[in-house]
Specification:
The complex is a heterodimer. Chain A is an alpha/beta fold. In chain A, 34% of the residues lie in helices and 18% in strands. In chain A, strand 4 and strand 5 form a beta hairpin. In chain A, helix 3 packs parallel to helix 6. Chain A is elongated. Chain B is mostly beta strands. Chain B folds into two domains: 156 residues, Jelly Rolls; 39 residues, no CATH class. Helix content of chain B is 6%, strand content 50%. Chain B has one helix and 14 strands, in the order αββββββββββββββ. In chain B, strands 2, 5, 6, 9, 10, 12, 13 and 14 form an eight-stranded mixed β-sheet that branches. In chain B, strands 1, 3, 4, 7, 8 and 11 form a six-stranded mixed β-sheet that branches. In chain B, a hairpin with a 2-residue loop joins strand 5 and strand 6. Chain B is elongated, with a radius of gyration of 24 Å. The chains are: A alpha/beta, B mainly beta. At the A-B interface, strand 6 of A face strand 9, strand 10, strand 12 and strand 13 of B.
């Protein structure tokens, strides 16, 4: 069930990125001067999947991480994810905490004041602009909404020349609170992207965290956790820098 | 016979057995003689940018020593290309994208210029981010900005780096089966199957004055 949920999330994300679902731009850049120079950013707690995942994606050229995974592979994937969860737990690693810390630190470094705000969200779905419009009571200039589609370890195939590397897929949008039902910024950041995607900000993976077989991750849990930590950190920084 | 040829052709297309096109490659241009550089950018003969025109090989600008060059205020030479931005009632998106040609990875900055020649905005290196293996700046248009001057960035030229890219695709194959019945009648059917293939590649790039550039403009479809 978890697999299908994640596949649905990634499918929705891919549809959004490739623009085949609705005629909208996959990326909308932030123009600070033309957005009224917002200073206080309301950060909604990022939506992050509860557990790390370890897919072997199959995608189309130009797309992002693929979605078609055979049933037999799904069983192996489930085993990998159980193992990854054990590693995460035993090393007391929280992707969500690392990611959140990185975002806040980078926003502050960019000159923003960050105010954590509590808004109800529907799972990993982005918050609608209409929900924020007119919410001057929040005491912020704009609201930053971030959703993580997935994180963990991914391999391009099961062959030895396609090692497991950390990955993160995260989307962000900046919404105004002044009453306009619009988006000031929208983008997706992918750490370790597949198939040369042109409509997402991408971060090439750190070659230090290559694991030829999944067993190598299990044999080097500390290094594996460090790899995920670096991915969380760099993805958080890249997302926050979209507000430059 | 014709049928067999058609099937073979289809299989080749699906299985990707056609002869691959050799990849373009350029040696990185990390220094050149600045003697021919002009003291300022010449805005005449700007390439028009059309909103909605997609990125294609036809609108690629290949940066090399045959392009105009300017001596910048700090004395460093930069190869440049001028684009004429469209006047539009509604804001639109401008994409400035460079891609490596072999190891040569064009690295640029971009200046927006008003009709009177005033620089209104400067997009430096931190305005660009990797999008796959391309470096891209995505910008919203502003009123009064008429030209976009894209210049190679001498401050970063010469930097060598490795980059990993991953590929994961479905490798499709077609299988045609011919069945002959007891009455001698033959029929055939074709089935398709897909095998996942994938791997990673390590690229060695050098930021350079030469390489591939695209500047395109696209409408803001729905601003939410």
């Amino acid at each position: 069930m978890k697999f299908y949920k994640l596949a649905a999330v990634m499918g929705g994300l891919a549809a959004t990125i490739t623009g085949c679902a609705t005629p909208s731009n996959p990326e909308l850049p932030f123009d600070r001067a033309q957005s009224g120079n917002p200073h206080v950013i309301g950060l909604v707690k990022p939506a992050v999947p509860e557990h790390a995942s370890a897919p072997i994606p199959v995608g189309s050229a130009g797309g992002i991480a693929g979605l078609l995974i055979a049933g037999t592979v799904a069983v192996m994937r489930s085993n990998r994810e159980s193992s990854l969860e054990t590693i995460v737990q035993s090393n007391h690693f929280s992707f969500a905490d690392q990611f959140h810390t990185s975002i806040v630190a980078t926003l502050v470094a960019e000159g923003y004041t960050v105010k954590e705000i509590d808004l109800k969200r529907d799972g990993l779905k982005p918050i609608s602009a209409a929900t924020i419009a007119g919410r001057n009571d929040l005491g912020v200039d704009a609201v930053l909404d971030i959703s993580v589609g997935g994180y963990g370890y991914v391999a391009a195939s099961q062959s030895d020349d396609a090692p497991y590397r950390p990955y993160v897929i995260a989307s962000a949008q900046l919404l105004p609170v002044g009453g306009a039902d619009t988006v000031l910024m929208k983008d997706t950041v992918v750490y370790n992207p597949f198939n040369n995607p042109k409509s997402v900000v991408s971060i090439p993976p750190d070659p230090q965290y290559n694991f030829v077989h999944f067993g190598d991750i299990e044999a080097n849990p500390t290094s594996a956790v460090q790899g995920m930590s670096v991915a969380a950190d760099q993805t958080g920084q890249a997302l926050a820098r979209l507000l430059r | 016979m014709k049928g067999k040829l058609a099937i073979t052709a289809a299989c080749c297309l699906l299985a990707g057995c056609a002869k691959p096109v050799p990849e373009r490659t350029l040696p990185p241009l990390i220094a050149f003689n600045p003697a021919y550089c002009a003291p300022s950018v010449v805005l005449q003969d700007a390439t028009p940018v059309i909103v909605g025109e997609l990125e294609t090989p036809k609108n690629e600008i290949l940066f090399d020593e045959s392009n105009p060059c300017v001596r910048q205020q700090d004395g460093t030479p930069a190869i440049y290309h001028v684009f004429h931005l469209p006047a539009a009632d509604q804001p639109y998106l401008i994409t400035v994208r460079t891609e490596p040609v072999g190891p040569a990875y064009l690295v640029v900055t971009a200046d927006f210029i008003a009709a009177d020649g005033t620089v209104t905005r400067r997009i430096g290196g931190d305005g660009f981010s990797f999008h796959g293996i391309s470096l891209t700046a995505l910008l919203r248009s502003r009123p009064g900005e008429e030209y976009l001057v894209v210049k190679s960035d001498p401050s970063r030229v010469g930097y060598a780096f490795d980059q990993i890219s991953e590929v994961s695709l479905l490798y499709s194959t077609a299988t045609t089966t011919v069945v002959t019945s007891k009455t001698g009648k033959t029929s055939s059917f074709t089935s398709f199957s897909s095998t996942p293939v994938g791997g990673s590649r390590n690229h060695n790039f050098v930021f350079s004055h030469n390489g591939s550039l695209h500047v395109t403009a696209s409408p803001i479809l729905v601003n939410k």
